[in-house]
Amino acid sequence: MNKREYKGIIHSVQDRYNSLKLTFEQAERVYLFEQAKDPHKDEYFSFWEEMDFQMDTSRGILTKQQ
User: Fold this and answer.
1) Which of 13, 44, 47, 65 lies most in the core, judged by the most C-beta atoms within 10 Å?
2) Do residues 20 and 66 make contact, with C-beta atoms less than 8 angstroms apart?
3) With a threshold of 0.85, does the pTM exceed it?
């Protein structure tokens, strides 16, 4: 993927989460998080463990206002 395509992908993340008004850097982190989530991982998490992980990750990306 070239730089232009990458920027387009990040802008699409910003559009998808428009209500949060993500910065470019936050959208990058969301994109990387989404790419890292692999349903075929060797580890298995319960539903609640997965929700806890997503919440912790979100807290690390978003501001309190978001």
Assistant:
1) 13
2) yes
3) no
